[in-house]
C-alpha cells in the first residue's frame, strides 16, 4: 500500500535533493517562491491573523519501492517528482529513497525538530502501508514481518509522525499518504486488513489518502502512481483552494480507475488554504472571465527578476539586473557574481577557494544510546573541486568527502564511508556502507560550514590551512 503525506497547520493530506542554500537571504527566497508558484495562502476572516511575510517551509518526502516482496515500480519516482515540486514552491526538502526503519524514524524526528521553528510542514510518503488493529504503519524496505506482533517493531507507526506534528504546533501541516497498495505481508497476518485505517485530522490538519480507508490503490502504469500523477497535475492549476485541489484529484482518479479507487481526505482546516494563487481580474469586476496574475509591485518584480537569473553563469544577466534595479534587494549580490565571473575559472567553479582545509565532522549522540563521534582530516580543493579522506579508503571507519564549491561560496558536498564500531553506528554491522549529502554548505575565504540531517544530526566545519597555487 502507498501513502503520501502533507502537513498544513495541523493538516494532513495523502498525496520525493534540496535547494542549494545560500544563494540569497532566506526571507527573499520564500518571497520568490510564493510569487512564482503561490504555494500556500490563508485568506478570509475565518483564517485568523495573516501568516508571516516569510515563514519556514519544510517537507519530509519518503519513497520506498525496493521491497523484497511486492516491490513498487513508481514509489521512488513519485517521491522525486513531489520533492521537485515542493522545492519549486519554496520548501526545504528532506528526501529519502528506499529507506530502512532506522532512517525513517530518525528522519521523522529531524522533521519534527524543524517543524518546531513554525511555518508550514509537508510530509509525503509513497510506498507500502498497512493497518494492524486500527493502527497505521509505513513499511520500510528492510521490514521482515511474518506475524502481527512484529509489525510494531519492523514498521514505522504513523502516530510517531502525528505526534511530532502535534508537539511542534507550527501553523499548518499537510500529510499525504499514497500508501494503500496491497499489503505484501497480508497472507502472513490473521487480520488480512486492506488499506489504511481512518485517522481523524487534528485542528488545522488535512489528511489525504490515495484511496478510501480500507481500500487499495494502483501503482500506476506510467512513470508515476495514479494518485500522485493526478495530484501533481492539480497542483499546477492556479487559484484553487486545497479542498478543490483534492476534489479534482478524487474525480480524476475515480474516473481513470473506473471507480475502483476513490481518494479520500480528513480535514479540520479553518479558513481558506489556496495553492498557486492568482487573481481573476474579470471576476473582481463582477464578470466571468479567464484568470490573470496580479501585476507585481516593484519589490516583487525585483525578486522575480533575480529568481530568473540567480543560477546564471552569464555576466550580462547580472548587468541587466543592475541596470533595472541599481539599488535593488540583490544589487550587492549581483555585483559579487559579476566579480566572481570575472576571475579566470570562477565561472566554472570556486577556484578562489583552492588550497588545503582542515575538515571536522561532529555527529551527536542519538536517543537510542548510539554514541556520537568526531572525525578530522585534511581536504584539498583544486579548481573548486573538493576531495578529502578520513582513514584508509575501503576500510571500516573510513569516510570520503567530495563535491564542488561554486564561485559564490555555496557548495554541493557528499560524504560516503564504511561503518566501524557498533557503539557509534548502532544496529549497522561494521563495514556497512553509508552516504549522505551535506546541506547548507557555504565557504568564505577562511572558513566553511555545513550540516548532515539524514539519519542523525552532524555538523561539518572547515578551516583553511593553506591557499592554492
Would you kindly provide a written description of the structure presented here, covering whatever features stand out?
Helix content is 26%, strand content 28%. It is of the alpha+beta class and 469 residues long. The strands form five sheets. It has an eight-stranded antiparallel barrel with strand order 15-16-17-18-19-20-21-22. Mean pLDDT is 75; it is low at 1-53, 277-297 and 343-349. It has helices at 26-37, 75-88, 101-115, 151-154, 158-168, 226-235, 242-256, 281-284, 298-309, 315-324, 331-342, 422-425; strands at 5-8, 11-14, 41-43, 57-63, 92-97, 120-126, 129-132, 135-138, 156-157, 172-178, 205-209, 240-241, 264-267, 272-275, 355-363, 373-382, 385-390, 399-405, 411-418, 433-443, 447-452, 458-467. The chain is globular, with a radius of gyration of 24 Å. It starts with a strand and ends with a strand. The protein has three domains: 5-275, Rossmann fold, CATH 3.40.50; 298-342, no CATH class; 351-467, Porin. Helix 1 (26-37) crosses helix 9 (298-309), helix 3 (101-115) runs parallel beside helix 5 and helix 6 (226-235) runs antiparallel to helix 7.
Across the major sheet, the strand order is 15-16-17-18-19-20-21-22
The total of beta strands comes to 22
Shape: globular
User: Could you name the ranges where pLDDT drops below 50 across 5 or more consecutive residues?
Assistant: 1-53, 277-297, 343-349
**Radius of gyration computed on alpha carbons:** 24 Å
CATH architecture of the largest domain: 3-Layer(aba) Sandwich
Question: What CATH first level of the largest domain would be assigned?
Answer: Alpha Beta
Helical stretch count? 12
Approximately how much beta-strand content do the residues carry?
Answer: 25-35%
Roughly what percent helix? 25-40%
Tell me the structural class.
alpha+beta
Span from first to last CA?
57 Å
Annotated CATH topology of the largest domain: Rossmann fold
Biggest sheet architecture: 8 strands, antiparallel, barrel
Oligomer: single chain
What is the total domain count?
3
Amino acid at each position: 500500500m502507498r501513502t503520501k503525506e502533507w502537513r498544513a497547520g495541523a493538516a494532513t493530506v495523502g498525496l520525493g535533493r534540496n535547494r542549494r542554500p545560500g544563494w540569497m537571504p532566506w526571507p527573499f527566497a520564500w518571497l520568490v517562491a510564493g510569487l512564482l508558484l503561490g504555494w500556500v495562502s490563508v485568506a478570509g476572516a475565518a483564517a485568523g491573523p495573516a501568516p508571516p511575510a516569510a515563514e519556514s517551509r519544510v517537507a519530509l518526502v519518503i519513497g520506498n519501492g525496493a521491497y523484497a516482496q511486492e516491490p513498487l515500480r513508481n514509489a521512488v519516482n513519485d517521491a522525486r517528482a513531489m520533492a521537485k515540486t515542493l522545492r519549486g514552491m519554496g520548501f526545504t526538502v528532506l528526501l529519502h529513497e528506499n529507506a530502512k526503519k532506522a532512517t525513517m524514524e530518525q528522519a521523522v524526528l529531524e522533521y519534527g525538530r524543524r517543524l518546531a521553528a513554525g511555518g508550514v510542514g509537508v510530509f509525503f510518503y509513497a510506498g507500502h502501508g498497512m493497518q494492524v488493529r486500527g493502527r497505521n504503519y509505513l513499511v520500510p524496505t528492510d521490514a521482515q514481518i511474518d506475524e502481527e506482533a512484529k509489525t510494531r517493531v519492523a514498521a514505522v507507526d504513523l502516530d510517531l509522525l502525528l505526534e511530532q506534528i502535534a508537539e511542534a504546533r507550527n501553523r499548518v501541516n499537510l500529510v499525504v499518504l499514497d500508501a494503500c497498495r496491497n499489503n505484501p505481508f497480508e497472507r502472513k497476518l490473521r487480520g488480512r486488513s486492506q488499506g489504511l485505517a481512518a485517522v481523524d485530522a487534528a485542528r488545522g490538519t488535512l489528511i489525504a489518502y490515495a484511496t478510501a480507508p480500507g481500500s487499495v490503490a494502483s501503482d500506476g502504469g506510467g512513470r508515476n502512481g495514479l494518485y500522485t500523477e493526478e495530484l501533481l497535475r492539480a497542483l499546477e492549476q492556479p487559484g484553487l483552494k486545497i479542498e478543490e485541489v483534492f476534489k479534482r484529484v478524487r474525480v480524476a482518479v475515480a474516473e481513470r480507475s473506473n471507480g475502483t479507487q476513490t481518494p479520500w481526505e480528513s480535514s479540520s482546516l479553518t479558513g481558506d488554504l489556496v495553492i498557486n494563487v492568482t487573481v481573476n481580474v474579470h471576476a473582481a469586476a463582477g464578470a466571468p472571465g479567464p484568470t490573470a496574475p496580479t501585476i507585481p509591485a516593484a519589490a516583487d518584480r525585483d525578486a522575480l527578476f533575480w529568481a530568473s537569473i540567480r543560477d546564471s553563469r552569464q555576466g550580462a544577466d547580472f548587468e541587466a539586473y543592475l541596470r533595472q534595479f541599481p539599488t535593488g534587494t540583490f544589487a550587492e549580490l549581483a555585483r559579487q557574481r559579476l566579480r566572481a565571473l570575472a576571475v579566470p575559472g570562477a565561472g566554472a567553479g570556486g577556484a578562489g577557494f583552492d588550497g588545503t582545509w582542515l575538515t571536522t565532522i561532529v555527529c551527536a549522540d542519538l536517543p537510542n544510546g548510539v554514541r556520537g563521534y568526531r572525525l578530522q582530516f585534511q581536504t584539498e580543493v583544486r579548481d573548486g573541486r573538493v576531495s578529502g579522506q578520513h582513514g584508509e579508503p575501503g576500510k571500516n571507519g573510513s569516510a570520503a568527502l567530495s563535491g564542488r564549491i561554486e564561485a559564490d561560496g555555496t557548495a554541493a558536498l557528499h560524504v560516503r564511508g564504511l561503518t566501524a564500531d557498533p557503539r557509534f553506528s548502532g544496529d549497522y554491522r561494521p563495514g556497512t556502507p553509508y552516504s549522505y549529502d551535506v546541506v547548507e554548505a557555504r565557504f568564505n575565504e577562511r572558513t566553511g560550514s555545513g550540516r548532515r540531517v539524514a539519519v542523525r544530526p552532524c555538523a561539518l566545519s572547515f578551516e583553511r590551512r593553506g591557499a592554492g597555487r
